[in-house]
Amino acid sequence: MVILTSVLTTGALTLTACGSRDNSSKSGDSGSATTLTIGVDAPLSGENSTTGLGIQYGVQIAVDDANKKNTVPGVKFKIKALDDKALPATGQQNATALVGDKSVVGAVGPLNSGVAQSMQQVFASANMVEISPSNTNPALTQGKDWQTNKTRQYKTYFRTATTDALQGGFAADYAYNGLKKKKAFVVDDKQTYGAGLAKIFNDSFKQLGGAVVGTDHVNTGDKDFASLVTKIKNAKADIVYYGGQYDESELITKQLKDAGVKIPLFGGDGMYATTYIETAGKAAEGDLATAVGVPVDTLPAAKTFVETYKAKGYKGDYGAYGAYAYDAANAIINAVKAAKDANGGKLPSGDDLRAKVVDGVQKSDFEGISGHVSFDEFGDTTNKQLTVYQVENGAWKAVKTGTYNAG
């Protein structure tokens, strides 16, 4: 869960210190400001756009706050948001466009782990930082053999969301010990995120003593799940676990309930969106989803962010990743400030600034609106909080918040 901006030519604007000069501003540095850009990549239309827009506007609020507070004297920030439509190839094109724009010092996104796989090398080759507020597949930071041999993949890639190694196990523990479910039917959408999460849930649920009475796969974009519903019904499962996005799961749960299969559907953070409930209607009652972090509405530090998001009338859903996108953008902004301060109050130029921003993000250590922001040796967040939400009276309600030890 395509607007392609052409790469700026060197003649399109005068570039200074990896940015453009804005002589109308009077915020220091000889009476003018340097404009730096933070790129955003997410699905801003079509599938997954509800959560993708939450990422875009989370970054927008962070940039507006930094400009208002003059966080980096002499620097004005703006965003460049590109729509990847949840397609890896489009994400790669967007990454190329962002690194080709000399005013861009870092990027926030993407939403989808599968899209991230196509973008990481592009950013790494340009030595430009990329911070995802939502990617959860462990392999992105720790390699495909992450369960036995963790290896940092790209020094330029970070995330403010915790991984499926924790999310899948957290969900399995709640299903087995919290809900007392013993027979799970596991489904995934064949995508990097969904398949990976479903496998971790599958393995964890069995380790706890539960039985996986059936597994199946669907395709993104599918609308008719009659055969899947029949398989679940015949398996006599008491819970369905779905690895994927809300676009398919909202239809699966509706068709399940319409067929008389009154069991909950449980999913990951890709399912945690208001759109899920709006589409599934009453069929969503009792369904569950895990999401990274603690509920944004309960965090005192996020109060102003939530108020601003609502007051601006921004589209999308800030609840899933908005705060994590805000914190990701601030990690980049703080790194720009650190680079400027360490260079005698002057911005390093060109590629040197990008390199120093990568180093600065790795050293992040501040209180964000989603919690403490810092990264480990793999680029993963040190914030391991997770929450289980359940649909009650037509809304997501937090039912358990905590951490999970994957062992």
TrEMBL record:
Entry keywords, A to Z: Signal
Pfam families: Peripla_BP_6
InterPro entries: Leu-bd, Peripla_BP_I
Listed Gene3D superfamilies: 3.40.50.2300
Cross-referenced CDD domains: PBP1_ABC_LIVBP-like
Keyword Signal found: yes
Key word Transmembrane helix present: no
Domain Leucine-binding protein residues, every copy: 35-394
Entry superkingdom: Bacteria
Family of this protein: Belongs to the leucine-binding protein family.
Protein name in UniProt: Branched-chain amino acid ABC transporter substrate-binding protein
Organism of derivation: Streptomyces chiangmaiensis
Highest classification ranks of the organism: Bacteria, Bacillati, Actinomycetota, Actinomycetes, Kitasatosporales
